[in-house]
Structures are given as structure tokens and as C-alpha cells.
Amino acid sequence: MIEMKKIVSVLLTLGLCTSVIAQTTKGVPVAAKSNAHLKVFNQAMITGDLGAAIVALNYYISEQGGDNNYADTLAMIYMQQGAYAQCYYWSDKRLAAKPEDKNLMEMKGISLEKLQQPKEAIAIFEKLYAKTQSPYHAYKLMGLQYSIKRLAECIATANSAEKLEFKPEFVMTYNVGDEMGRTYLQAGIFNIHGLALYDLDRKAEGKAYFERAVALDSNFALARQNLEAIKVIEGKANKVDPNNPQNPGSPANKPKQN
Q1: For the residues 239-254, what does the mean pLDDT come to?
Q2: Cα 240 to Cα 235: distance, rounded to the nearest angstrom
Q3: Does the pLDDT value for residue 179 go beyond 60?
Q4: How many domains, the chain?
Q5: What CATH number corresponds to the domain at position 87?
Q6: Residues 6+ apart with CB under 8 A from 151
Q7: Beta-bridge partner residues of 182
Q8: CB within 8 Å of 46: residues ≥ 6 apart
């Protein structure tokens, strides 16, 4: 039996980083920019020392109070470092003051996902996707819905995503064992759509979405594996001995969680 693997998505951190750091400069008094802690922070960012940047911002925020945009940046850097509990703390705290901030919502949602709280993460990404109609947010929402077998919701999100505009530069990465691959975001959405349909015993429709994913990117390893798994099962089903029928199984069972 061939085991399907779940797509692993990555945040487009460069765009988020640029957006969040740009926000920190808005409305910051000149006196604050000359603050010793901010000087250390700026130097740490120039040299790529995120640990020192975190320390400097913690000192600055403890001195100035958390009601400033540098707390947004602190949340972002914690996420970059994989410190999701700390990222959640600051993004949640800042959302109390800026409840509609899309960057903060995204960081909070990703932190909840990484902290193994998919239901709470789904609530965040449902709201975020409704606001942005972003293919990336649709993909994140689908992945979360599929991970806890909210299959009908996953398919509804997928159908909504098909109406969105996808550009060639919309890409995603995924893991196959210890190796990393790269494909079009739309191909990734087709693959999850296929998984949800297959799990609902809509096998022919699921197979069609795997085929659409492979048509977009013939090197998309996950979709190719899923498609080949279905073909193997179909072949076994066609060869079942009527005097000794056996269940040919399923192509996937449960996708691996990361």
C-alpha cells in the first residue's frame, strides 16, 4: 500500500517581514529612534542576529510599553525563530488593539497551527480568507480543515479557491521524506481537494483533481504519488477473484502530520 503524504506549507515570510518591519517606522518619534535598545535592534537586524534583536526589543517594549508597532515586529521575529508560543502571545496581545490587522491574524493563525490547535487556527484563517480572498490563505485553511477531517468544509473552500486568480509566481514548498520540492500553489490546492474527495468516497472526482495537479506540474511528487496509488488500487480491483473477493484498500489511509 502506498502512503500519501500531507503537503507541508511555508509562510511567505519575506513579504510578511517587510510589511511588519515597515509598520514599525510609522509614527515613531525621532527620540524613540535614537533609543539605545532600538540602536541595538537595528544593528542586530543588519547582521542577521535575530536572537539579539529579540532581546533588544524586549528591553525596549518593557521600557516603553507594549502598545507600539515594535511589538508586531517582535511577534514576527519570534515566528521566524520558530518560537510559536511567544509569537502567539504578542500577536494575540496586539490584535486586542488592532483586531483587523491581517499580518497579526496570519501570525496568530500559524502559531495556533504549530501549537497543535487546528480548530482555533481554522477560526482565524476563515476570518482572514473572508477578508483577503487570498489563494495562500485558502490553501492554509484547506490544509487545516483536511487535517481534522472537516472534509465538506475543505471541499467548500477548494471550490471557492477555484474562482480566485492564480499567478505563476504563486508557489509553495512541500516535503517528500527528507527532500523538499516546489510547485505551483494551485497544484497544491488541487492535491488537497483530491484527498478530501477521495476520503469522502468520491474516488473518480479525487483522481481527476490529482490529474489536474500533475497537469499543472508534472514534477509535483505528492500528486504523482497519489495518482499512482489510485491506479494501483484500480488495477487490483479489476483483478479481484470473484471467488475470493478482497478489499483493495485505500491509496492513503491517514496523511502524516508534521
Answers
A1: 51
A2: 9
A3: yes
A4: 1
A5: 1.25.40.10
A6: 145, 196, 199, 200
A7: 173
A8: none
Do 176 and 183 form a contact (C-beta atoms < 8 A)?
no
| Backbone dihedral region for residue 16 (phi beyond 0: left; psi -120 to 50: alpha; all else: beta) | alpha
33, part of any domain: no
Cell of 43: 544593528
- How far is it, in rounded angstroms, from Cα 142 to Cα 147? 8
Count of Cβ atoms closer than 10 Å to residue 258 Cβ: 11
Residue 1 domain-assigned? no
**Cβ–Cβ < 8 Å for 4, 255:** yes
pTM: 0.80
**pLDDT, tens digit, for every residue of 54-99?**
999 999 999 998 888 999 999 999 999 999 999 999 999 999 999 9
Instruction: Determine the pLDDT at residue 32.
Output: 56
What is the residue range of 148's domain?
A: 13-26+69-238
Residue 17 lies in a domain: yes
> Does residue 42 form part of some domain?
no
User: Residue 218 has what DSSP assignment?
Assistant: T
Task: For 106-161, write each residue's pLDDT tens digit.
Answer: 999 999 999 999 999 999 999 999 999 999 999 999 999 999 999 999 999 999 99
Q: How far apart are CA 235 and CA 233, in angstroms?
A: 5
DSSP states of 64-124 = H-S-STHHHHHHHHHHHTT-HHHHHHHHHHHHHH-TT-HHHHHHHHHHHHHTT-HHHHHHH
Distance CA 217, CA 64 (A): 51
